[in-house]
Amino acid sequence: xxxxxxxxxxxxxxxxxxxxxxxxxxxxxxxxxxxxxxxxxxxxxxxxxxxxxxxxxxxxxxxxxxxxxxxxxxxxxxxxxxxxxxxxxxxxxxxxxxxxxxxxxxxxxxxxxxxxxxxxxxxxxxxxxxxxxxxxxxxxxxxxxxxxxxxxxxxxxxxxxxxxxxxxxxxxxxxxxxxxxxxxxxxxxxxxxxxxxxxxxxxxxxxxxxxxxxxxxxxxxxxxxxxxxxxxxxxxxxxxxxxxxxxxxxxxxxxxxxxxxxxxxxxxxxxxxxxxxxxxxxxxxxxxxxxxxxxxxxxxxxxxxxxxxxxxxxxxxxxxx
Amino acid sequence: xxxxxxxxxxxxxxxxxxxxxxxxxxxxxxxxxxxxxxxxxxxxxxxxxxxxxxxxxxxxxxxxxxxxxxxxxxxxxxxxxxxxxxxxxxxxxxxxxxxxxxxxxxxxxxxxxxxxxxxxxxxxxxxxxxxxxxxxxxxxxxxxxxxxxxxxxxxxxxxxxxxxxxxxxxxxxxxxxxxxxxxxxxxxxxxxxxxxxxxxxxxxxxxxxxxxxxxxxxxxxxxxxxxxxxxxxxxxxxxxxxxxxxxxxxxxxxxxxxxxxxxxxxxxxxxxxxxxxxxxxxxxxxxxxxxxxxxxxxxxxxxxxxxxxxxxxxxxxxxxxxxxxxxxxxxxxxxxxxxxxxxxxxxxxxxxxxxxxxxxxxxxxxxxxxxxxxxxxxxxxxxxxxxxxxxxxxxxxxxxxxxxxxxxxxxxxxxxxxxxxxxxxxxxxxxxxxxxxxxxxxxxxxxx
Lengths: 321, 448
Description:
heterodimer; A: mainly alpha; MetI-like fold; 2 domains; 74% helix; B: 448 residues; alpha/beta; D-Maltodextrin-Binding Protein, domain 2; 6-stranded mixed sheet; 3-stranded antiparallel sheet; 43% helix; membrane (chain A); UgpAE/MalFG_permease (chain A); ABC transporter (chain A); MetI-like_sf (chain A); transmembrane helix (chain A)
């Protein structure tokens, strides 16, 4: 009966959707005259515009509005929430961690992806080697976090207890003592960044590899005729040719990184000074019962992501042209 | 340009489909309540209704929901009221969304008295009818009545209860090694030292719990606060009429530190002091089974964490003793519970609400939970019907006239403290932060 009811709801939803489409088509059929094209365009755009207005624009404005109020949204506090993000010790940790994430993970993932793409380019095992690095992309952030949680897992340094975490087992094999990797700041943030790099390096590699293959053979051949090889070829020919792609890859990973929430929440829950803006926004809004501060963090996230997205779009346009 | 016919056909087909679905949905929900009045004497007072429904919303999910639903089968049969039970893991956030969105359930089960207070302040909760108030006054102790009373008015009734002041141990190990169950805090310390002198870490502790990591520290501190400063100071501290970082709290946290941050006492079978922070709370008591530690402080619900085949009984592999009080003169008990609050005052809602506050329901619930793991602080509950030894012990402690019950403090504090700063700072405290820095940070996080 539960399932029947759910299926009923699903069918009703689909029915409603079909109904809207039907109405639009019906109306569209009635348009004629000189300005029909324009009206038709507006008619087809209307559902999307309406959807965006209701689901994106209004909530965004509402969030900005709520960021100016106190924890329960009852009293206007001006910019107090913004001030506390930049003054309380705990929130400053959050900003510091976010900065570490945004600086490290796009650079490292892109660098690793680029070097890997160049190294395996035209080698005998190219597709196999690429598949290996690309595989993590197919794993969700939460799945990857659980995998890496096991890598960092700690078992006490006691007789008869064996390590189940890869990292600690390597350490023990080399004669060291096992460490509780995830509880010491700021090292733990770096260890979380590794997960992001592991996932994103495959993306960087794939896109950059495609870009490298796009470089016209003539250019490479003429450079080789001029005696340019190895590092020189990479620096003077490959890198300048794929620069737009590198920028797109860097900015795309930067956006993903700014929004990172899953990795932090799954691996440490933001404890041990590992929280980042996206995680703190969730914690403040839904656990700490502080709607104002939560909204402020969301606005901050938006403001941080916005320039990167704008830059990304401009690059993409130039690339396309 | 005449494209209408196919579209018309399509829309007609759609409207027929929609109508069929609606019919199907209606047919589905028209319940078939089995009639029959045998054994309905106890239910006469609630009256009889026809085609009335009451929705009950909670965070109780499988497998605990089944005994819950079964516990009011008789009520449904005798009164004709149909109870629509809904349990969801995301209850805590979703119920707020539903209430704010103007779509509250008829009744909801909350685990935090703080939340009840907050809801009353928003004006959405409905004051309990006289029949419920009468039951609450009749069946619950004064401290429990206090959790549902806001500004002198009763806004609901307690439901279930649990005891948190427990120390888990192995009766077999105690017998073999000649340890005795401590009766005072001093004896607890002496016992710990004795075990430590034998070369074993006495305690095993773990505060890991995903993004809720740190909450077991709050329970430890609350237990110590109750014991060292008494219930009055505890209430003041919870209600923030004395500061979070005052001398009472400092004394309590330092006393906890003598256990949790003492390298000679922790962390048996789990590592050094810092491993307290990285061990999951579910795993933390298990080293007792391997004889790697002897004591583990955790609430009655921990009974479910012991592997299958472990004998949990007064002379079995595992059992619990009451976390001792300072001395013989007092017996503070830290615990938790559930509360039913109404958002509607329709007669059928009142009837069901009254039933849930009665001794009849408490005993029905015990009967429908044969595996144990559920008790109530309802004094009408027949404790002799409980089957599980831990339930029996919990009920005995709750019903002991010497007991002074206090609700888990962090559940009563504002969210910014109770479910955030207290956990986070408690965790930092375990990994090395000083008591003063910890308490100062929590005090600073208290909403102004």
